[in-house]
Amino acid sequence: MSELFGFIKELTGLSGPIGQEAAVLDYIEPLWQAAGAHTERTRLGNIIARAGGNGPKLLLAAHADELSYLVRAIDAGGFLWLANGQAWTRTTSLREWFTVGQPVRVLARGGTIPGVIASAAGHIASLVLPEPAQLTWNDFWVDTGLSRDELLARGVTPGTRVIWDAETSQRGSHVVGKALDDRVPLAVITEVLRRVPPAARAFDLTLACTVQEEIGVVGAAALAAREQFDAAIAVEIGLAGDIPGIGENAMPLRLGGGPGLVHKDALVHYDHALTSALEQAAARADIPIQHAVFGSFGSDGVSFMRADIPAAMVVFPARYTHTPFETGHLGDIAALIDWLAAFVRGG
């Protein structure tokens, strides 16, 4: 488990915001080449790794990008006003207050600048401001300690990406940090590639590291438009309901219960035959799995289904998704590797 955690820690520590995934791509491509795959990059940036094997063409896909903000303006006092890296409106959910106080990396042209997401707080807020009834994008900002002129000199402009700066840690059997979505699945499919040699594969295996999943499965759509596969498996973070206030009736996945097989999400019903084949492979390998349907969730799998490529989605359950403290279970992640390796072997 220590080696697996170390691999995840390296991947999650990389800076790979939506649209600027190069650090992740540059890290993963030589690993896939060292494992015997022949790689190419598409014009959009996806990595395709052709690994070989005997049988139908199977794609294992995980995405490189992590959630990010963008600088929308630089205040005269040097504060950075933010825009969301996904859809963006005037307000955001009050549940997003967790981001205030988080350290961040401002990915400036002149190098990374540390900062913190700040808001009026404590004594001055209680003295001057009313209690908020809503959270808007004018209620918080990034404070780097630099002036506006210093930020401009370092290459900060509207459009500069900002990501959370959280070190991944191990707490018992749990792994906690930023960008588990979707760097853990990148680690998973890399380990499958390493563990199952070409002669043992029941499929002609291809791996894909896609870009811009978080803004609308852009990379996967481009990949599906250029190449056909007999089947595709989107490997993703999952949703765990084992926290206060949620519960099994809303989301039955739990940490430590095994990887998850997702039958549908907000965008697509996954291919029934492929989903059943994955379930049967887990049973033959004696790997406990969990089942789920997702609501407010989508994956690269929808792009493959829309291109007439039968697709399934498998996940490792996680608490606190889309935060800098996403939390998964190393046992579930290891079991996900074993499950996919068994499937690729034809088990």
Automatic annotation (TrEMBL):
- Active-site residues annotated for this sequence: 213
Instruction: Please give the cofactor(s) recorded in the UniProt entry for this protein.
Output: a divalent metal cation
Report the domain of life of the source organism: Bacteria
| UniProt GO molecular function | aminopeptidase activity; metal ion binding
The cofactor remark states: Binds 2 divalent metal cations per subunit.
**The family this protein is said to belong to:** Belongs to the peptidase M42 family.
Instruction: Report the protein name in the record.
Output: Aminopeptidase
Q: Which organism is it from?
A: Kouleothrix aurantiaca
